[in-house]
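User: Predict the full complex structure for these chains.
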Amino acid sequence: MTMTADQELLPRTGPTGIWSWITTVDHKRIGIMYAVTAFSAFFIAGLEALLIRVQLIGPNQDFLSADAYNQLFTMHGLTMVFGVVMPIGAAFMNYLIPIMIGARDVAFPRLNAFSYWLFAFSILLMMSSFVLGGAPDGGWFGYAPLSTELREVVRMDFFSVGAQLLGVASIAASVNFITTIFTMRAPGMTMLRMPVFVWMSLVTSFLLVFSLPIFGVGLFQLFFDRNLGAHFFSSGGDPLLWQHMFWLFGHPEVYVLILPAMGIVSEVLPTFARKPLFGYPFVVFSGIAIGFMGFGVWVHHMYTAGLGPLAEAGFGVATLMIAVPTGVKIFNWIGTIWGGRVRFEPPMLFAIGFIAMFVIGGLSGVTHSVVPADTQQHDTYYVVGHFHYVLFGGAIFGFVAGAYYWFPKWTGRMLNRTLGFWHFWLMLIGFNLTFAPMHILGLNGMPRRTYTYPDGLGWGFWNAMVSIGAFIIGISFLIFLYNVVRSVRRGPIAGPDPWDGRTLEWSIPSPPPTYNFAEIPHVTALDDYWHQKYTTDEEGRSVRIPDAPEPAVSVADHEVHMPSPSFYPFVAAAGLVTMGYGFVFLPGGLVAAAIGALITLGGLFGWSLEPIDGEEAT
Amino acid sequence: MTVGEIITGAVPHDADHHDVSAIRKVAVWVFLASECMFFGAMISTFLLYRSSGGDGPAAEIFNIGFTSASSFVLLMSSLTMVLAHHSYERRDLRQTRVWLTGTALLGITFLSGQIFEFTEFVHGGLTVSSSPFGSAFYMLTGFHGAHVAVGVLMLLAMVFLLPEGRLHRRRGLNVELVGLYWHFVDIVWIVIFTVVYLLQV
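Assistant: Here is the predicted structure of the two-chain assembly.
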């Protein structure tokens, strides 16, 4: 089949050209833009990690200076958290939430575009710091008073301003998702018929809405300390306040990073085990429990700050308890695979990899709840090993599982299966080679955030292994990148339902038309689409219904009113980031800040006055 | 349709024509929940530093009488906001504009009071950089003032745009949503006034 003939088999999905992407308010396109931006940031953050690993491959290396090392590890953390894991979660949420609940778009399509553009510009602002006076170098946690010192250097201003803007973008997106899930569900789609991914997105959005404002206040205080001579954290103020502000956000943030991946895995496992998710309500409610308890454990990041035995004991117990709902989920996932007719396709492998790696990370995490042990492990590579097991072994494995699973829905084409297997095994081996030895190094006393280490401490061998592992991870993702680039153009046509899926997104064409559903579905059950295709016989086995409806390949026979494209979200976001640059370079930047404020205001006014859709314009 | 009914899905709705006003209301409530955490974090900071005046002046510099008067002005603006919403519900656009203008003027009066107060305090030696108390005080009351200013901007935008019919129920700004925001900003001030001015060490 030639490529052009092949191309015609895919459904058309709306206008093309750069302008159509800048002005788009289509949740699917915004989801794709989030994914592409985050994937690019992932390669940059990965490159930063590799530079760090080259420096640490042996003792007393001078590949990087201490100063460059500080910037690189800080930016690696900031980029991975704010530029990669959060926006990849947002990419999945954008693309999938409306389709999974049977809606045509999110509640506020232009706000959605605004969130994306503000996120993209802010991450560029942060990265531009490398060439504009130096990148943030005080750690992604920006502990005061280190972060309030050196006021003549703009580095930590890039941190406070950039993270603030990213927070605004995330709050706007979260408000949007919560409203979408609460109000836009198709008839019959009750809360307890929603796919688990949608539930986890809802919990994630609430976590962000409640935790980001606290971080925002902390960042403002840091900014005022640095630029207005305020005394929040230094000279009379209390540096501990920053730690509370940061971790009150920072710990819920951990669940923000992992819950979407847990949702993805809860979708992938039932499809490839060909069984319903085991204990759906338990998975949902344990997710909600994690959300609540996530706000009550932040002090376990601060055991060495000297808060006293009462606080440490209380938060230690709370930290032990939060392992319970997490464990519930793991047993549910195992119960889902148990007795299923498992197909080991790439998405399934990554989902199983997620469970295994996340269990390891979870167990090493529980060791941190024990105060005396944690005091020993604090600020060592043990902690680095632990959180990479949950954030890379957990979140990234989950996201890659989701990418292999939904790639056919996004592009209409399948990813190459063989390359998928290569990616999985290289990533699994590379990952464990990188992060497992860090536990040993940490217990042997190797401190984090230090640019080199002396010879003769017995750290050289494991550090060399870690560095080799890091490069294997790098190679595995180059394979993935090649697979994606190749399959977008030449992958086999997937059709609407390549995996025999269970949820509504598989009932519409791949890629879906702009309006998603020609007719809004009426939902009657959990896993509604599966029940349209299958029934159970007397022995409880799934049997295909002979005259089951084919996935809708037809186009709408009537005109569907969709929101009109808009340029104003882009303008408003650009204005805010101009303001951001102004505030980084105070006092000279005040002019830029004022211009940015005017642009933002103009964007917002244009936004409120333009017609929402063609229906209203006439 | 109440928020509860929307969430539980008790009321089946036509998916092609969602109740736009109800959807916006859900979003504003979620946003205000987020704002609670924003002000909560600043109020906590103030409570931490309320006796950290250092060498400079602290709570003794406040003029309770003056701030009580401007607090009263802000509370009255909630009343005029209710009246504006009431007129809007009766489709009386002229009355709505009058009450919206009144609300905005009361808001501006409050802001003028705050600017006057800040000027007095700075002359009295209380600045952002004089002590942790000063930093926390100016941050908390300053961000509240900024919220009032944004509210005034939205009120004035509605006053000028309502008569041409350019803003109506399907649009981002409507009287009910701005009202929700305005009442929230008022309620926060009651907390701030109590915690900062009345509860002195």
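The CA atoms of residues 215 and 249 of chain A lie 6 Å apart.
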